[in-house]
Design brief:
4-stranded antiparallel β-sheet; 35 strands; about 425 residues; single chain; 1 helix; mainly beta; about 5% helix
């Protein structure tokens, strides 16, 4: 009997050890900060204190300034299924599966409103935004290039037919000169778009014969491909015409996001964190177990956001990173120089306020005439970024003036012909 009890104790100790090790594998160097569990979450993009994500046919706009308590600010009903979202300035660009390309104005996040749309042939799968252009993939068709300098009136400036083994074109990521498109069953097609009206194939990276919702991320001269032949590949694209694989991470990965020398790779319900300070030698340093079906990952600072189709949104801290808060000016208010400057069609203004204030940002011409009011509402403390479309503005020198309570500051910008 004593021997039997000892055996049971030994088995119990081994079970506890296994369970402890299993838990460690599930969550290592990560901390769950908050949840939004009001429905499925299929795609997400984060900018500042705002997260926008797709919940079926809804675009949800949420305040994440307190990750422990994310607050829904507004939602927009779209015609079909929200496949992908990207935030740029005051707008969210949406690939709506059978509803084409949709544009939502979030300059007032509590009152998000659809500002424009463009119908496309075929379904709209994924999109990427770089400068004044959006790149959107369409099943059984290929790649559309959209000019979005006037977000309310997007126009197609170019397209290219792409054919894959299964008739399915999935993910896309882009910079100003090249677009990288995943073709199911073939690999990565590299498209040169320095002349948007005449895109052309510049290179190719061979892939597997598998079909699936694979994912791409671009960071500087490196492309990260989840769903590559052996799992996840890190590719040097400093010369996009000759891509070079520098590392393979074996595993069943289908989602990827990159920020600050850390790679976040999704595999089913798990997200694995890799240190990629040496791109040729990625090292797993963390992990997190989500609800059941990871569909998208986005990263902001030391926090990553997991869109889960079964369990909603997870807000998770990378414990290996310290939060870096932007330094406030001495008086708590600031207006930065616009960028780009000079500019032809559009520019962005960044400013900071330290207390709840009624804020205005106004543009004046050289004679002191008011041209437009870019901001005119009460705002919470924080950093803000707003976009000005000057497409129909005459060339010249203009002043932009920020007023927040008793604080006033004026700077100048130049509109080119």
């Amino acid at each position: 009997m004593k021997i039997f009890i000892k055996i049971l104790k030994g088995l119990f100790a081994q079970s506890v050890l296994f369970f402890t090790q299993h838990l460690k594998a599930q969550q290592q160097n990560t901390t769950l900060l908050g949840r939004w569990a009001e429905g499925p979450c299929y795609t997400i993009d984060v900018s500042g204190k705002i997260a926008c994500y797709g919940n079926g046919g809804y675009l949800e706009v949420t305040d994440i300034s307190n990750p422990l308590n994310p607050v829904e600010l507004s939602k927009v009903v779209l015609p079909s299924f929200v496949s992908d979202v990207k935030i740029s300035g005051n707008y969210v660009y949406v690939a709506d599966e059978w509803g084409g390309f949709r544009v939502v104005d979030i300059s007032d996040p509590a009152n998000a409103v659809e500002a424009g749309f463009l119908s496309l042939v075929g379904s709209s799968n994924r999109l990427s935004v770089a400068g004044n252009y959006a790149y959107i993939t369409s099943e059984h068709y290929g790649l559309y290039i959209l000019y979005i300098a006037d977000p309310a009136n997007p126009v197609v400036t170019g397209s290219i037919k792409l054919v894959d083994v299964f008739g399915f074109i999935y993910d896309v990521t882009a910079n100003t000169n090249y677009v990288y498109v995943y073709l199911a069953g073939k690999g990565i097609d590299i498209i040169e778009v320095s002349e948007p009206s005449g895109p052309n194939e510049a290179g190719f990276l061979e892939g597997s014969g598998y079909y699936g919702n694979f994912d791409l991320a671009l960071d500087g001269n490196y492309l990260f491909w989840a769903g590559a032949p052996d799992g996840l590949q890190i590719v040097d694209v400093s010369d996009p015409k000759i891509p070079v694989v520098v590392a393979d991470i074996t595993g069943d990965f289908d989602k990827v996001s990159v920020k600050d020398n850390y790679l976040y790779a999704g595999s089913g319900r798990f997200i694995y964190v890799f240190n990629i300070s040496d791109k040729s030698n990625p090292i797993q340093v963390g992990s997190f177990k989500a609800g059941g079906n990871t569909r998208d990952i986005d990263v902001a600072g030391n926090v990553f956001y997991v869109a889960d189709a079964s369990a909603g949104l997870y807000i998770v801290k990378n414990d290996l990173l310290s939060a870096v808060e932007p330094a406030l000016p001495e008086n708590g208010y600031d207006l930065l120089q616009n960028h780009p400057n000079p500019f032809k069609e559009s520019t962005t203004f960044d400013y900071t306020i330290s207390r709840p204030e009624f804020v205005t940002l106004k543009i004046y011409d050289a004679t002191g005439k008011l041209i437009t009011t870019v901001v005119n509402r009460r705002q919470a403390p924080g950093n803000y970024s707003v976009h000005w479309n000057a497409r129909n503005i005459k060339p010249g020198i203009y002043s932009f003036c920020l007023t927040a309570g008793n604080y006033h500051i004026t700077k100048q910008c130049v509109v080119l012909d």
